[in-house]
Amino acid sequence: MNDMSLVERRLVQDEIKITARDVQVFYGEKHAIKDVNVDILDKTVTAFIGPSGCGKSTFLRCINRMNDTIDICRVEGRIALDGEDIYDRRVDPVQLRAKVGMVFQKPNPFPKSIYDNVAYGPRIHGLARGRAELDEIVEKSLRGAALWNEVKDRLQEPGTGLSGGQQQRLCIARAVATAPEVLLMDEPCSALDPIATSQVEELIDQLRQEFSVVIVTHSMQQAARVSQKTAFFHLGNLVEYGETDDIFTNPQDPRTESYISGRIG
Amino acid sequence: MPVFWIVLIVLALAAAGYVLGQSRALTQVDGDARKLHSRPGYYGWNVAFSTALPALVLMVIWLFLQPAIIGNSVSSTISDDAIPEGQTRGIVLSEAAQIADKLSSAVSQGVLSRPEMMALRVDDADGMGRLKDAGLAVLTRPPVLGAAQQYLGMQRMGSIWLGILSLALAGTGFAWALMRTKPDFRARNVVERVMRGMLIACSSIAIATTLGIVLSLVFESIHFFRLYQWQHFFFGTEWTPSFGGGSKLGMLPLLWGTLYISVIALLFAVPIGLFAAIYMSEYASPRVRSVVKPAIEILAGIPTIVYGLFALVTVGPMIRDWIASPLGLGNSGSSVMTAGLVMGVMLVPFVSSLSDDIINAVPQSLRDGSLGLGSTRSETIRQVVLPAALPGIVGAVLLAASRAIGETMIVVLGAGAMAQISGNPFEAMTTITVKIVGQLTGDNDFASPETLVAFALGLTLFVLTLGLNIFALYIVRKYREQYE
Amino acid sequence: MTDATDPGTIPAQPARHTSGSLLTASARTKRRNAAEARFKAYGIAAIAIAVLALCFLMSSIVRDGAGAFRQTYASIPVTVSAEVVDPKGNRDPAEMAKVISLSYGKLLDDSLKAWIAAENIRIEGLSDADTKSFFSGEAPARLRNMVLADPELVGQTVEMTALTSSRIDGMFKGRVTEETAALDSKTSVAQFRLAQAMKENGALVTKFNGDFITKPDASDNRAEAAGIGVAILGSFYMMLIVLILALPIGVAASIYLEEFAPKNRLTDVIEVNIANLAAVPSIVFGILGLAAFINFVGLPRSTPVVGGLVLTLMTLPTIIISTRAALKSVPPSIRDAALGVGASRMQTVFHHVLPLAMPGILTGTIIGLAQALGETAPLLLIGMVAFVTTFPAAPPEGFFDPASALPVQVYNWTQRADPAFSERASGAIIVLLIFLLCMNLLAIFLRRRFERRW
Asked: I need a labelling partner for C432 at 20 to 30 A (CA). Which of A83, A243, B266, C14 fits?
């Protein structure tokens, strides 16, 4: 597994999916994100690392405008998806979020059946023309989330009855079913045990073939294991961004070095 | 008010006990409080509690039981032949009580001395004349006068004995507690045990209240069902009470009116209250919320008499003149529609503030999950938040239903008093609560089925609402546990 | 890792639906946004309907009730003729007291006629009945009290401000018009014209009616003299009893349940019981009061003591629920700190937890009191609806005197025929609502002022 990803890491994708320029985020008076510039590539796993409270989750939530749901939050600068400014007045956040899916820190399956959880996105976006097509999407998504074999016999049972790791994979299947182009993951493994974590990590590596994946993690080991690109955030600033291998072996900025060697964070 | 003075004396004694207990404890250790087991104040409290509590408890029990005991013993001295044809023992007793009232005010005004009053006879022209001059004329028969005198005599004996016993009890407690005051006496533990007992007693008042409600409803209802067949009460479709006898006391028309009005009220209040709650919790900005939420709480506190008056004076005539009369559906100002709509308005703040709490209990992560998939807010609410909140909302609706069924003033003033089963919402109908008020206001004869039926109605109402409440509270509780 | 390691299960995705630009909304998005807007509009509509209904309620109460605070008085010179009020001529107060109010009514009537003649007012068809029913039945009684208090007035002509009848009063509040006066047996067109003429002359004034707030209720045909004095005092007495009983009992019960009670069946029963008691219809408490306090204990009917006890039992659950919430919001670290320095549990509660929870407890108590103040149904059953015109004495004896209560007074007036009572009922409601508003504002103020964030 490790060898394979090392090989793949060399296959550098150069198609840029998301561009961020001079992004500033304010929570009321607090300046949470300062001057962030970053290019996120397609079909790549990009990891955001940094000490807690450094703004990595905040920036992640900017990419699909989840910050809109927080009243006091204000975003400035330009974030573009495929060259289109997502903060443009004409952009409907609902349409944006269909393209940029999100998986959250804590597994949050809806209090519905497993099937309905996965079918929820396709239903609201009208992706399936009939029951058969919907069944197909659900199956593919659950397979894609490496959950199909575990739940195929109990699709009508409530999603809340699954174990923590299964719940998180269900949430990933739910996000995948909407057929997004970008998948944002906000510390997807922080509430999971080590075995569930390794399952989800393997899954993330698989997902890279289809999506641009952005993952926020507090674990440097995880970032090293799953990502090709890594961005290090510190106190609201993007300190360093580059190839994961370079960041971990040869950091340019002293702050990155301190963090990686465990002196801050 | 001799009881008032006894209470004051006991309290004064307790206060003295506090001071004495404290100083006695201190003098025994030469003023060095460190050598005492407890802080000096606890020794004081110990004496004060020992003095006041037993005496006060005795007084409360005594005063609670004395009227019933005296009433029974006076009643037993009145022979059956002393009760005139067409009257009941109850009427004779209340006559005796009235005369006793007059006699005691005669004594307090100095018209008669106490021995004179106790010796008064019906044919005693002088005594009776003096009473008449003082505006306290007593016209009665010997057995009733005798009963009244016995009544007064026992009352006097009662209060004398109460005074003696409670003061003796207070004094004993005082002396005993003071004697126990020694440096190694664990005053704090004793005082805290007593306080704990008092706290427990206070919490059990809630149970005592429920017990009181159940007992008073059940006992009087049993009286009623002895006089009136229960089948006719529960399944009768006619309500025509007449105090002359031959009443028909079927509950169904009242139940029908109650349910009809409640359903209209809920049809109005639930959608509006629910949508208002959804808007408040999902769309409104924090500033709007911080203004509107307390406002809704204040509105929920508007007394129902206000809504009742509104129904009577404004809504009733309006519905009659604008809707019912032009459509030929009726010409009554009070109607099911009037009461139902006004009750609906009353329930809106209730439903909305309960639903608001329940919707807010749905975790934010579920909303985030749905929004993160690209659903709109309304899709999130309809397909994720509301299904998650459904049990809680059902509970809230049931609580609202129980309120609607038990509501009194709006229906008394808005629904009318016609006991009938009809489908036309513009006709006057009546409810269980209206009839409870109707049968129990004014002078009551607690031996006639027409009065006692109110207790059977009350029991029905209590059981109905209690069932709804227990079920609703159970659902809401389970719902909350799910998200805690 | 079951299926992920399966060869050939590379996540095959459904066809992407939104290959279009983000900047143009797809047809489906437009539809969904329209549904969103509709849904939001339902919410706004619901709030609007609720607010409108409540505004309508408030405005109709204020519109109907404002008149109760203004009253029409006639201001004419009254000759206190000695032959009428002091037939023996010896100015002996005891003798003068034997002259009943009816004779004073004649004085007023004569004075009015004399005034009409003096002012040269001519009204067609003005009958004796019209001048006689011009004044309130209360006016002669007040004149009598005035004369008895000051015998010097006998034989003099005094300028008197006399209460007019409710019909005359209604003419200046839009309740009685010339057309309705023609159909009304208690007034007439001539009386209407007389009133208009007197108004032009300045002899009739409509001014602030302080008597409404201070005077007791009046009988069925003296609506103009009815006031809410006894009702306010009765309500006040009951609130006093509720406060004295419910606050300590409620706080004690909450302390036990929240801080000491072991988790067992009994406490469970008490908890469920309190929650249910809070939702029992108020009228059931009235039945309890009637059966337990009046029939069993033998307390007198229509008295504040019985009303206060019933309302106490009703308010207790509210106070207990809010007190427990207040106690619960005091963080456990405070208790640990106090226990850690060797305080007993009782000392911990009374020295630390209770003072910190006090603002919350007071807020709950005020809200409970406000609820009790507006409660009507249980009071009807314990006889508070009786017609009471004498003020109860000072407490504690006054607790055992018959009294009325504000909301019951309102109900009482709605049951009377004269439409002037309906105006007074709304007026009493306004007073009640002002009290409630003040209590609620006080509660909100306390909450804002002393609220702690832990």
From this structure: B266
**B337 compared with C81, residue with greater pLDDT:** B337
Residue A110 or residue C102, greater confidence? A110
Which of C241, C175, C161, C259 lies closest to C205, judged by CA?
C161
Burial class (CB in 10 A: 0-12, 13-18, 19+), B238: middle
What are the extents of the domains in chain A?
44-75+93-260
DSSP letter string, C56-69 = HHHHHHHHHHGGGG
Token digits of residue C225 = 């003299």
Compute the nearest-CA separation of A111 from chain B (Å).
6
CATH top class, domain B239-479: mainly alpha
Beta bridge partners of B191: none
- C173-209 confidence digits (pLDDT tens): 888 888 888 888 888 888 888 888 888 888 888 889 8
Query: What's the rounded Cα separation, in Å, for the pair B138 and B136?
Result: 6
The DSSP letter of residue B140 is -
Contacts 24+ apart (CB under 8 A), C113-121: C114/C79, C115/C76, C115/C77, C115/C203, C116/C194, C119/C201, C119/C203, C121/C194, C121/C197, C121/C198, C121/C201
The Cα B260–Cα B272 span in angstroms is 19
What is the per-residue pLDDT for C314?
A: 94
Which residues of A fall within a CB distance of 8 Å from B379? 124
On the question of a cis peptide bond just before residue C402, with omega within 30 degrees of 0, the verdict is: no
CB-facing half-sphere around the CA of C347: CA atoms within 13 A: 15
Q: Which domains does chain C have, with CATH numbers?
A: 71-207 (no CATH), 229-450 (1.10.3720.10)
CATH architecture type of domain A44-75+93-260? 3-Layer(aba) Sandwich (3.40)
Which residues in chain B touch residue C381, judged by CB atoms under 8 angstroms apart? 436-437, 440-441
Give the DSSP H or E segment for C233.
helix C229-255
Quick one: DSSP state of residue B100? H
- Measure the CA dihedral C185/C186/C192/C197, to 10°: 140
Q: What is the largest CA-CA distance in chain C?
A: 128
CB-nearest to B305 from C249, C313, C410 is C410
A residues 118-137 lying closer than 8 A (beta carbon) to C: 122, 124-128, 136-137
- The DSSP code sequence of A86-115 is TTSTT--HHHHHHHEEEE-SS----SSBHH
Q: DSSP readout, A18-86? A: EEEEEEEEEETTEEEEEEEEEEEETT-EEEEE-STTSSHHHHHHHHTTGGGGSTTEEEEEEEEETTEET
Alpha helix stretches (DSSP H) within B81-229: 89-109, 114-119, 125-133, 142-180, 187-227
Domain range summary for chain B, segments of one domain joined by + = 3-185, 239-479
What is the phi/psi pair of residue C396, to 5°? -85, -15
- Select from A95, A104, A184 the Cβ nearest to the Cβ of B369: A104
Chains that touch B (3 or more CB pairs under 8 A): A, C
CB of C47 within 8 A of CB of B355?
A: no
Q: What global pTM score does this model have? A: 0.86
Q: CB-based contacts of B178: which residues, under 8 Å, 6+ apart?
A: B17, B20, B21, B24, B47
Q: What is the pLDDT of residues B196-210, one digit of tens each?
A: 999 999 999 988 999
Integer-rounded Cα radius of gyration of chain C: 33
SS (H, E, C) B225-265: HHHCCHHHHHHCCCEECCCCCCCEECCHHHHHHHHHHHHHH
User: A111 - beta bridge partners?
Assistant: none
Are residues B352 and C50 in contact, defined by beta-carbon separation less than 8 angstroms?
yes
Q: Name which of C296, C285, C287 is nearest B221 in CA terms.
A: C287
> In this structure, are residues A141 and A174 in contact, taking their beta carbons and an 8 Å threshold?
yes
Residues of C377-393 as b/e, b for ≥16 C-beta within 10 angstroms? bbbbbbbbbeebeebbe
- Three-state DSSP at A215 gives strand
Which backbone phi and psi does A25 adopt, to 5 degrees? -130, 135
